[in-house]
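Example record used in the benchmark description.
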Amino acid sequence: MKKFFTTLSNIWKIDDLRVRITNTLLFLLIYRVGSYVVLPGVSAASLNHDQNKEGIAGLLNMFAGGSFSRASIFALGVMPYISASIVVQLLGIAVPYFAKLQKEGESGRNKINQWTRYLTIGITALQAIGYLRSQISPEQMELANPYFTILNMCVLTSGTMFVMWLGEKITDKGIGNGISLIIMVGIISALPGAFLTEFQSRTTSVAGGLVVFIVEIVALIAVVMFTVLIVQGTRKIAVQYAKRIVGNKQYGGVRQYIPLKVNAAGVMPIIFAQALMFIPATVQQFFPNAAQNKVLMALSDYTSWGHNVLFAILIILFTYFYTAITVNPNQMAEDMKKNGGFIPGIKPGRDTGSFIDGVISRITLPGSIALAIIAVIPPLASMVGITSSFSRFFGGTSLIILVGVVLDTLQQIESHLLMRHYDGLMKTGRIKGRTAIPSGDTGQPVI
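Model output (structure tokens):
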């Protein structure tokens, strides 16, 4: 405990780090205050402030920190930006122009970011129209002025772009990963209320409910530890670099490692699988009296075994798919060959690419299964009687994002401490003579 407070004192002693943390907290406070500002012409009293929505509305509401259900000016949050980022990333695989931009370094990255912003505006405008028609009652829209839809579409689009700007400012002036921090704050804002709701339901309705609540907390901690293990898990491949003499200095000749993540796809397979799992519920609305209605109802039921088994299978398939399109073993082998590196016992070039591809395929299987297990824990928790507001933190998209962002933020802070030869947050001993560790933050969402 003494070491912990010493580390906090060291953080406060570093002027640059203190300013960055203060800026981050200030920007996040602005975001949270804005999430309670209701759209013009909308009556806040008539809105349904249900924080436990299911389906795509529940996912958006979770990412937006409740702004979605409050009809806030930040109701769409950063989801349009994330959608645009995913589309541009996929275009980099299918369209030669975007693939070329990805290889042009800083200038190409700036152009890609510009395209992402333009696409974000278009996606937000379309989602704003759908949001107004689905969330705002027709009576309110009729009572408002004729330009109600146009006005609020512009407000929602401006709100999303402002949130995106806040994320970029947190990345530049704060401790990095601004978009991810905004998503994390939105998710974690529901945690105190979920704890209180679950505590009250256990202690007031069931004998020995306090013991049950403590068991739930212990189970939650165990799930978090398991998630940390999956997020941080890596398979290291030894790489040997040939010796080179440049002037009077020798380069290479040392063994390094390529860290391959067990879960290289992150949370994206869960998001893709969730998008497909909304299809049965949509189809059911068009065929309410069909003979297949029972099957559609079973697949649409969040707590049914059929739904969760299919959900887990889709996550495993999408994990392989997303890993295949984001990790290029042949490119890694080619870069290694250009820099004079080789894997001991493996020929450089094509054989190295095949070896790396085989390793990725082997580690992706347990990683995808573990990801599927984490994703289906929330519905299983609801099936055993845990309230939906609390069960969502037992796994799924929210927990993986929380763990990933917290670990990355701690690493950012630790890099600043180690640059000034202080003990890090995640180290037990003091490190001396270590070279500075650059933050390497790109501003892209961790998810």
